[in-house]
Design goal:
Elements: E1 3-4, H1 15-23, H2 36-49, E2 55-59, H3 62-73, E3 78-83, H4 87-90, H5 95-98, E4 103-106, H6 115-124, E5 133-140, H7 151-163, E6 167-171, H8 175-179, H9 188-193, E7 197-201, E8 211-215, H10 224-230, H11 239-250, H12 253-274, E9 278-279, E10 287-288, E11 290-293, H13 294-301, E12 304-305, E13 307-311, E14 316-322, H14 329-340
Parallel strand pairs: 1-12, 3-4, 3-5, 5-6, 6-7
Antiparallel strand pairs: 2-8, 7-8, 9-11, 10-14, 11-14, 13-14
C-alpha cells in the first residue's frame, strides 16, 4: 500500500478527542449546541479573540462554513472578490454561485490576492442597477498554495475593504498551520480586529469534523442562528462539535498538531531543496509544491500517493504533498530517502 501525502484526511481523529467522546457518551446534555462542552469551548476561543463583539458558531465542514457565512452576509445582488487559486473558485462544486452570488476572480501572486486587483473590481461595477455590487473579499490563510499572509498584509486588506465598503472574510481551513508557521506574525486578536468574519478549521487539524465560524462584525450576526438552522447545519447532537473544540483548545493541542504537520512538511521541503528542486510557491505550512520532471514524478508515484497539481511545461510538473497532524516521521524518512535517489 502506498504512503499517502495526498490530503489532511488520510488519518482519523486525535485519540484524546475520541477518548473524550467515549467518556462523555452516556452523559445527558442539551442538544443543538446548548451543552456544557460547547459553552466551554466557545469561551476558550472567545478568550483568545479578546473581542467582546465576536460571536462563535460551530458547524461540521469547510464548504458548509463558506456557504453559510457568505450566503448570509451577502444580499442577492452582491458578489465576491477572490483570487484564482481560492478554494471557492473550483473546489466547492459552485457552492457560492449556487446561492446566486457572482465570483470575480483576480490573479494571484504566491496564492495571495492583490490590493490593486481588489480596487479595480470594486470600482468598475457602476452601471446602476444593471450590474452586481462587489461586497466581500474572500481570502484563505494558509492559502491554497500553502503561503501565509503577514499582519501588514492583513491590515492593508482590511483598511482597503473599509475604504471601499467591502467585507473581509478568511477561509481558515488550515488556519492552525498558518498561525503556527515560521514567520507568522498574526495573532488571534488580530483576526478578531482586522476581519469581518473568518472560520477556524478543526477537520484538517485532528478533529473528526468541525469548523468554528467567527463573526466579528455585529451587523452580520443578526439572525445567523436562524440561517444555520434553515440550511440544515445546526447539529442536533452539537456537543460532539463542542467536545472536539474543547479538547483542541484547552491543552494547546490545536497548536501542537499544526506544529507537527508543519515540521514534517519542512523536512520534505528541505530534502527537495538539497536536491536542487524548485517550488511553485513558498510554503511555511503543511503543503509542499515541488516542481519535478515527469520521470521523477513517475518514480515517486510508485511508492507514494499525492496530487498532480499543475503542468509547468512539457517536461516538468508541480505536485502537492500534504502532511497532517498524524503524519508519521518514519513515513517522511521513507519519502526523503526516495527524494535523495531521484
Amino acid at each position: 500500500m502506498k504512503i499517502s501525502f495526498k490530503n489532511d484526511y488520510s488519518e482519523g481523529a486525535h485519540p484524546s478527542i475520541l477518548n473524550r467522546m467515549l467518556e462523555s457518551n452516556l452523559e445527558q446534555q442539551q442538544g443543538y449546541g446548548c451543552d456544557t462542552y460547547t459553552t466551554k469551548a466557545k469561551a476558550l476561543i472567545a478568550e483568545k479573540l479578546n473581542n467582546p463583539q465576536s460571536k462563535i458558531y460551530f458547524v461540521s465542514g469547510g464548504t458548509q462554513a463558506n456557504l453559510l457565512a457568505l450566503g448570509a452576509m451577502l444580499r442577492p445582488y452582491e458578489s465576491v472578490i477572490t483570487c484564482e487559486t481560492s478554494h471557492i473558485c473550483d473546489s466547492e462544486t459552485g457552492a457560492i454561485e449556487a446561492t446566486g452570488h457572482k465570483i470575480h476572480i483576480t490573479p494571484a501572486i504566491d496564492g495571495k490576492i492583490q490590493l490593486d486587483d481588489i480596487r479595480e473590481v470594486a470600482t468598475c461595477y457602476t452601471n446602476f442597477p444593471h450590474q452586481v455590487v462587489p461586497r466581500l473579499v474572500y481570502i484563505s490563510n494558509a492559502t491554497e498554495l500553502g503561503s501565509i499572509y503577514t499582519l501588514q498584509e492583513l491590515k492593508d486588506l482590511y483598511h482597503l475593504c473599509q475604504e471601499l465598503n467591502l467585507l473581509l472574510y478568511i477561509d481558515g481551513a488550515r488556519l492552525a498551520h498558518a498561525l503556527n508557521a515560521s514567520g507568522n506574525d498574526i495573532t488571534w486578536e488580530d483576526l478578531a480586529r482586522y476581519t469581518d468574519a473568518f472560520y477556524i478549521g478543526a477537520t484538517k487539524n485532528g478533529a473528526i469534523m468541525g469548523e468554528a465560524i467567527v463573526l466579528n462584525n455585529p451587523e452580520l450576526q443578526l439572525g445567523f442562528e436562524y440561517h444555520i438552522k434553515q440550511k440544515g447545519a445546526l447539529l442536533a447532537k452539537g456537543r460532539f462539535l463542542g467536545i472536539q473544540f474543547l479538547e483542541l483548545f484547552q491543552n494547546n493541542l490545536f497548536n501542537e498538531l499544526a506544529l507537527h504537520a508543519n515540521a514534517q512538511a519542512k523536512r520534505i521541503q528541505d530534502a527537495f531543496i538539497e536536491k536542487g528542486v524548485h517550488f511553485l510557491s513558498h510554503t511555511p505550512t503543511n503543503q509542499v509544491f515541488p516542481i519535478l520532471t515527469n520521470e521523477q514524478v513517475a518514480l515517486l508515484q510508485r511508492q507514494f500517493d499525492f496530487y498532480i497539481w499543475k503542468k509547468v511545461d512539457e517536461t516538468h510538473t508541480a505536485i502537492r504533498l500534504i502532511t497532517s497532524w498524524a503524519t508519521k516521521p518514519e513515513d517522511v524518512d521513507t519519502l526523503i530517502y526516495a527524494i535523495k535517489k531521484l
